[in-house]
Amino acid sequence: MNVNSKLLSTNISRPLAENIADYYGQPLGDLTIQRFSDGEMQPIISESVRGCFVFFIGSTCQPHDNLMELLFSIDAAKRASAGYITAVIPYFGYARQDRKDKPRVPISAKLIANLLEAAGLNRIMTMDLHAEQIQGFFDIPVDHLKSEAIFMPYLKENMDMDNVTFASPDVGGVKRARRYAKYFARPLVICDKYRERANEVASMTLIGDVKGADVILVDDLVDTAGTLARAAELIIKRGAKSVRAICAHPVLSGNAYANIENSVLEALLVCDTIPIKENKCAKIKVLSTAKLFARAIRYTHEHRSLAKLFVD
Description:
single chain, Rossmann fold, 2 domains, five-stranded parallel beta sheet
């Protein structure tokens, strides 16, 4: 047991955190979130963290309470003289707001980075940021893990890759999809989409040949699943044999479950970075990130390189 390390979890990520703790080899620390009648919260760490490596595990998905729990917990550890504080954020909320895409809007991802640092963090650990340049929003170390370390071995073990073509559902995700195409030495196609408003695709064009192929769409997250459903339909119309999708973060808002169930997608692989309380769709399969995060936490505590956690 690493007596000088403490693993603590906010409420939203407790199931994942318990699995991480099992792989890590020590129980979760005692962190409770007290609620007052007016809705305010107060995290309470009921054990000493003085001088310890403290790892807070908590995604900052909606509702906003999840972010506030993490911020207040970090402050509590800082004021309790923790030696080194790392926020393990499997899903970093607001990552899609990484720039000003219209006048008079915030860069919310940068603001959240500022808030986390102001709370007293020494390090961030996360997975599959929507835009990798968000790492530059922080003035502290950022360990950016990749879901490829989970999805690639799964695909290799469970699917015949000889007829596979990888696809990006938009131009912005080409780099991500290309890593899969390169790793498996398979072709890549691109879906070029145009939006008139958020969460609504106005038009989509397919760049590349998918005739007779088993296509795998690659994206960092699935929100309403409108883009995935639209891309899968277009790919099938262009002659593909089948379409599947892999997305690290299952945001699954709005009509996502219905969109997936009613789509031509055969399967959707996601990670447990955001808990799915009730899987309402048989097409969705959840893969665990617990072992990967446990190894990353151990390497961080032991001052070891995380390079071996990435797929070459």
